[in-house]
Every structure is written in structure tokens, then in C-alpha cells.
Design a protein that fits this description.
Structural class: alpha/beta
Number of helices: 13
Order of helices and strands: HHEHEEHEEHEEEEEHEEHHEHEHEHHEH
Largest sheet: 7 strands, mixed
Number of domains: 2
Bound molecules: pyridoxal-5'-phosphate
Strand content: 15-25%
CATH class of the largest domain: Alpha Beta
CATH architecture of the largest domain: 3-Layer(aba) Sandwich
Strand order of the largest sheet: 1-10-9-6-5-2-4
CATH topology of the largest domain: Aspartate Aminotransferase, domain 2
């Protein structure tokens, strides 16, 4: 039997609301999306939450709202998912990479200031795998250099930093509901912020550039009236089908997080004697607030062949795994454009080569976790 890497936690609650939504005949953006946005605002304690079709769209909208364009530079961590850098290049600006700290997979705050230039406009931080970045240090830097902060909280819904949820620190924050995240709408995301001044442009960008209704005085308002299309927005809206999933999934978030933390602790206890692996350390003080969106371990000596052989060995026993994620500057586009070599961003390369994500999902059983750990330990002859 296969043990999947991840599996959404769906039950009758999703099916029932989906059925209701389909039967209502209204499946584009509507009441379910509005309800999801309201619940998100209440939970996050933010003023505005806009449901959107992906976290990538939320990141893109954030950059557009901040007016970031050709000639600007935006700082971004080297290890992560390419989209975080791609949106910067997509708006014509330049992605400036900073290496990560392999102890927590997040941006190495000691290396940020040396990358700031006159062109730097913003920093995008990523709370990778559900662990928040060193936000206090980053806020000191954004304040000192007058930079905007975008939180890529794709992996960090419900994660906390000093008792506040991720997504409460940046000028704008972006979340993902892709199926590998804690809760899912198939594809989907949320853009949240507190500042009223971002609202109209963000809403318009997501929805064809539509703004308020244009009233032609001689006609009054009626079915003939269109909205103002005051700038070239596109369509990044969330549908009510996804919104219905979002409402139900969101109600499960707290219990999903609680379970995940206990599953992660179980892995850590079982694997702690394996001296070949570096685990996501479970330290109350440092890691309080980690939600383990992905449970990622490192092969300590950084050997990619060992990592691949371990993954092959797990697969033979029907256990799925994946690398943590990618060293973005070493993907073809960035390495060709900016001539990065293996000497650049060594921590990021190390993390790409030696990381493994182990199965973790709501209904993963203790006995399955035991099987996975036994398989890993027997690979290392433990
Ligand atoms: C760190 C990070 N940012 C952004 C994204 C993009 O999210 P989406 O697939 O919702 O566009 C992902 C997706 O995995 C991610 O891991």
C-alpha cells in the first residue's frame, strides 16, 4: 500500500457545501467567497482579505499595488518555490537573492543588508515549510532602509511568530490553498493587508480593472450600467466552488494544526537517534508557532546521492517523498540570466541536494509513521 506524501482532509462537510453551491446555480465569485474572506479577516485580525486564484496571483498583485516595476530591485530568499522570484521578474523588476539559514530554511537575516542598493524597494520573506522567518530582525531592516515588506505565507497559514499569526507583519501578505498546504481549495490563495489605500487597486487588479459603477447622469443606474474600467486589471478571482471549500476547510484549520504538531513531534522523537539526519529541531522557544506544512529533514553530510537512494528505497516500500524545494538562483532562467554558479548561495544548494519531505497529512496514522521511520533507519543500518 502506498503512503502518500500528502492528502487533503475532506469529508461530508465539504461535499455538502459544494452540493449546495452547485445547486444554487451561482458558481463564480459570490457569497461563499465573501464568507471565506470575512472568516479569514476575523481569524487573522486583519482589515482586508481578498480571495484569489493562487498565492502567485497574490504575490503579483502585491508587487503591482506597491508600484514595483522595471528598474526596481526586490530581495527574496534563494531557497523556496520559484514563483516568489518569478513574480518580481514578471513585473520587470530584478530579483535579488539572499542565501538561507539551513537551520530553519528561511532567509539568512545576517546577509540581507549587503544586498540592499539604491534600487531596492521591497523584501519578500518566505515562511518556508510553516516556520516563520526572523521577523523582528527583518522589520528593523525594512524600517532602516524604508523598504516595503511582503510576506509570502504560502506555507504558513496559522503559523505564529511571537504569538501573532504569520501574515500580520508585512505591508501585504499572501497565502496559498494549493493541495500541499494545510487547507486547500484545489488551487487558490488569499491576499491580506490592513491599509485601506491598497484596497481599490488590489480589487481592481484581480477583477478586470473594475472599479465603482459609472453612472451616466441622463440614464441613471440600471441593467445597462457598467463599472468603471480604470486600469488594465486581469481576472484572478476565486470562484464560489473554491470559496465553499475554503469556508469548510478553514473551520478545520485549528484541529489540523494541532494534529500536525503532534505528528511532527512523533517523527522527531522516533528519528532523534538517527545521527545521519538533521531534523527540524523541536525547541519550544525557537519553534513555537511552527505548523509543519512540510516535515523536511536534511541528510547531514549534504550528499545528494545518499538522499536520492533513500528516496528510491522509500518508494520501493510504497512511501512517497519529495525534496524540500528548489535553489531558485540555480534554475535555468536565473543561472543563465545572472550567471550564478555552484559557488553562489551554498546553503541553498545544500538544502536542495540533501532535503527530503516525509509524508504528513491529517489522517496519517502512528503506525504508518513508525513504518516510515523504520524504513529510513534500516536504510542507514540503524
Ligand atoms: C513559498 C511558496 N510561495 C508561493 C507558492 C505559490 O503558491 P500557489 O501555488 O498558490 O501559487 C508556493 C507554492 O508551493 C510556495 O511554496
Amino acid at each position: 500500500m502506498t503512503i502518500k506524501l500528502t492528502k487533503p482532509h475532506f469529508n461530508n462537510k465539504e461535499y455538502n457545501l459544494l452540493k449546495k453551491t452547485l445547486n444554487s446555480g451561482w458558481v463564480t465569485e459570490g457569497k461563499k467567497v465573501q464568507l471565506f474572506e470575512k472568516k479569514f479577516c476575523d481569524f487573522q485580525k486583519v482589515n482586508y482579505s481578498l480571495a484569489i486564484n493562487s498565492c502567485t496571483s497574490a504575490l503579483l498583485t502585491s508587487l503591482k499595488v506597491l508600484g514595483i516595476q522595471r528598474g526596481d530591485e526586490v530581495i527574496v530568499p534563494a531557497f523556496g518555490w520559484p514563483t516568489t522570484a518569478n513574480v518580481i521578474e514578471f513585473v520587470g523588476a530584478k530579483a535579488i537573492f539572499v542565501d538561507v539559514d539551513r537551520n530553519n530554511f528561511n532567509i539568512d537575516t545576517r546577509q540581507i543588508e549587503e544586498k540592499i542598493s539604491k534600487k531596492t524597494r521591497a523584501i519578500i520573506i518566505v515562511h518556508l515549510f510553516g516556520l516563520t522567518s526572523n521577523i523582528n530582525k527583518i522589520l528593523k531592516i525594512t524600517k532602516k532602509y524604508n523598504l516595503k515588506l511582503i510576506e509570502d505565507a504560502a506555507c504558513a497559514i496559522g503559523s505564529k511568530y511571537k504569538n501573532k499569526f504569520a501574515g500580520n507583519f508585512g505591508d501585504l501578505s499572501c497565502f496559498s490553498f494549493h493541495p500541499r498546504k494545510l487547507i486547500t481549495t484545489g488551487e487558490g490563495g488569499m491576499l491580506s493587508f490592513n491599509d485601506r489605500k491598497f484596497y481599490n487597486s488590489a480589487r481592481g487588479l484581480i477583477n478586470h480593472g473594475m472599479q465603482k459603477l459609472t453612472k451616466i447622469p441622463s440614464e441613471g443606474i440600471g441593467p445597462w450600467t457598467f463599472a468603471d474600467f480604470s486600469f488594465p486589471g486581469i481576472n484572478m478571482k476565486m470562484s464560489d466552488i473554491a470559496g465553499a471549500l475554503g469556508v469548510v476547510q478553514f473551520a478545520k484549520l485549528t484541529s489540523i494544526i494541532k494534529k500536525r504538531i503532534s505528528q511532527a513531534q512523533f517523527y522527531i522523537n522516533l528519528l532523534s537517534k538517527n545521527k545521519f539526519l538533521k531534523l527540524p529541531a523541536f525547541n519550544e522557544k525557537v519553534l513555537k508557532g511552527h505548523t509543519y506544512q512540510s516535515f523536511v529533514v536534511l541528510i547531514k553530510d549534504g550528499n545528494r546521492t545518499t538522499r536520492n537512494n533513500l528516496m528510491k528505497n522509500l518508494l520501493k516500500k510504497g512511501i512517497e517523498s519529495r525534496p524540500g524545494t528548489i535553489s531558485i538562483p540555480h534554475t535555468q532562467y536565473y543561472s543563465t540570466k545572472y550567471l550564478f554558479t555552484k559557488n553562489n548561495f551554498p546553503q541553498s544548494i545544500f538544502c536542495e541536494n540533501s532535503s527530503i519531505t516525509l509524508p504528513l497529512f491529517h489522517n496519517l496514522k502512528r503506525k504508518q509513521q513508525l513504518m516510515i521511520v523504520n524504513q529510513i533507519n534500516s536504510f542507514f543500518n540503524i
